Amino acid sequence: MDPTRWQRIQTLFHEAASLAGADQPAFLRAACSGDDALRSEVLAMLEADATSGSILDRDLGHLAHQVLSQTTSTSIEFKGFGPYTIKQVLGEGGMGVVYLAERKDLGNLVAIKVLRDAWLSPARRERFASEQRMLAQLNHPSIARLYDADTLSDGTPWFVMEYVEGLPLTDYCQKYECSIQRRLQLFRQVCEAVQYAHAHAVIHRDLKPSNIFVKPDGGVRLLDFGIAKQIESLDTPSDTTRTLMRLMTPAYAAPEQVRGGGVGVHTDVYSLGVVLYQLLSDRLPFDLSNLTPGEAADIVAGHEPGKPSATAVGTQHTGVGYSAWDELDVLCLTAMHKDPQRRYRSVEALIRDIDHYLNGEPLEARPDTLRYRTAKFVRRNRRAVAAATLVFALLIGLVTFFTLRLAKARDAAMAEAARTQRIQQFMTNLFEGGDEAAGPSDSLRVVTILDRGVQQAQSLNSDPKVQAELYQNLGGIYQKLGKFDRADSLLHLAVEQRRSIFGADSPEVAESLVALGLLRSAQARLDEAEQLARQGLEMSKRHWPPTHPAVAKATFALGKVLEDRGQYAQSIQVLDEAVRLQSGFSILSADLAASLSELANSHFYTGQYAISDSLNRRVLQMNRQLFGERHPAVADTLINLGEIQVQGGHYSQAEQFDREALDITESWYGKDHPETASAMTILGRVLVYEKRYDDANNLLQQALAVQERVYGPVHPRVASALNDLGKVAQSKGELDHAEADFRRMADIYRSVYGDHHYLIAVALSNLASVYVDEGQYVPAEQQYRDVIRRFTEALSADHQNTGIARTKLGRALLLQHRYADAEAQSRAGYEILIKQMDPSTTWLTKARQDLVEEYVALKQPEKADRFRIEPVNSARKVVAAR
Hints:
CATH class of the largest domain: Mainly Alpha
Strand content: 5-15%
Number of helices: 37
CATH topology of the largest domain: Serine Threonine Protein Phosphatase 5, Tetratricopeptide repeat
Strand order of the largest sheet: 1-2-3-5-4
């Protein structure tokens, strides 16, 4: 056979194999252009490919000869799927065959995907392996999970996925006549799954209803990551791009995809828009049936879709008013905009507008304006418009030249200075509360401002001083948004550029070193953080007088880093100095409030709760005066006050503080932000103390997912969430889970702080409590003794944590019937705690109960009676005090 013809057969075979079986004949009729022999040969290959003969065992030449000479109807018998038994074929497509199988030992149903025709295209084997890698890294309730993977004896790869029993999204909505609201709720679940994939740097590239199943319980599952791609590897050679174009579905592909252009978040957003269009109108935006791929691409890229409201049919659309349809049209067509820059910039932005619609709020998206349509006209008629503009500009220029010449020279310096000041002030105030119009940090306006700010900074090569200042300010803002990688890059650029402009020892470089030190502290890279903060402070003192604000700010930074390191005595000394310096300024400042807040934190960690409470109440008043009632700084102070209430055993008061703080934080940053996650962790901890374990677990799981995404698996905030999740598991009797959480918590703290931080003792104390629940009293005793030593060294012998650890040790000894030893520890812990806690606190109640039991066993009934009536006497003292 002619090699050229064989190549043509292969190409058509791959194109047709990627389509559903019902669509293949129409495609081949159009693609073969009347060549019936060619069409018959490709159909023969497709038929052989669809049968289950042992074709995977045959070489390419033998198969080509067999397929072109006669069809084959023998069947492939797949064996050796480990513990899985094949029950039936679920479906097949261009990548592989999917079987329904049952795991023999567990009896659960799964879906097994087996690579097809790897003998024809080795690239398919790589795509198949890529799909496995994608699924392995994605763990989301709305994404079908990967369970297992292996190869057959002949090397054919296969993998096991979650079996999703249900209907494609559009079929489900039509069958159950879902309302518009219900369709949007289901679509929102799809968007959350896609957003999760994007957050893990995965672009799906083939979103369509047949890849989105709705289960009988209403849950959504996203399937088929066969041509998904990591964001960092999206730059592919042109021939690879053309191959992938044959694999995608043109009806759901973005215009730039069908043109062979780049893909990314914006192309998935477009595909979601098409899915939404189909959900709203029960039809696709373009009818591409019976068209060749080239004709379909021309339609998608060159024609505007009609509004979904113009073609909406069905009972589910009754009751939707004209104004609501206008918003649905805007929402859908914004996602499908031909210009990627005019689409939703992320799936998260699309989700926000879905929520706005469902809540009856205004959308962030807007219809195309006259300005935008004019700009498109100018681009289409660029030469004519440019010529007319040039003539007009020359006329105006001749008239105004002499008038403006002197004014331009006079105003240039002033305009440049004002521009620099405006940029710095606006970007700084944006997240400090100075510009109320800027809005919360998760709004589309702020994201747009940041993106444009970075682009502007990169273009200011002719003005490196302003460029470095923009890098500095933008880096600080990205840090507040929790985008540490972006902040790191920009702050490094600021340091290097300022060194080249001002010299290695300069006040500008000192400012950048201080900012970078605070970022390192937030990243839990504490050795480097302290080194940078000290270097920045020393440099600032060399260039500024002692009372200069830059010196005060650098002093605060060092104090904050020392606090994060757990060196509280030193941090109190340094932060006291920062407060003294900042109190000398004539105006109330956010810097002073921040220094007082960190000083209050350091006192809290050393057990000086009264001092911390007084300082925090002062900070709360200052922050409300500076920023208003609904600012994150106010929320942080409320959390601090709540923690003080926890230490006193006043859990209901703590919950009030923490709920108000979470409400403020979430409204400012949004749900998927590390600050919101920290507020969830704090509230979840209080709910654990209140024994509301299910409510606590829901909050803590959400918080852990966000913290791990932002900070990675090894960070103090991750450990903080694990601490409380472990307590929830322990309270439910899930001791293995609790032990795993507490061990991981201890490992994180050791990795970050070394082996002498008091938080390691907290984790080890929790682990010892699991040993007690398991009946391992001797290991628990040994662990508690180590914990007491650590608390005494890191905090003090009379610190509240030391007292609690002593009562726990007393309990472990009591359970061993070592009554005298137990009484000594229980009594010592009780004497520490009674001076610092409300008598009704759980810790004191438990200590009294243990002491009663110990004195009874020691035959000292008078002492036992004393601790029986102690709660009554304490209550009387409280009443008398009131």
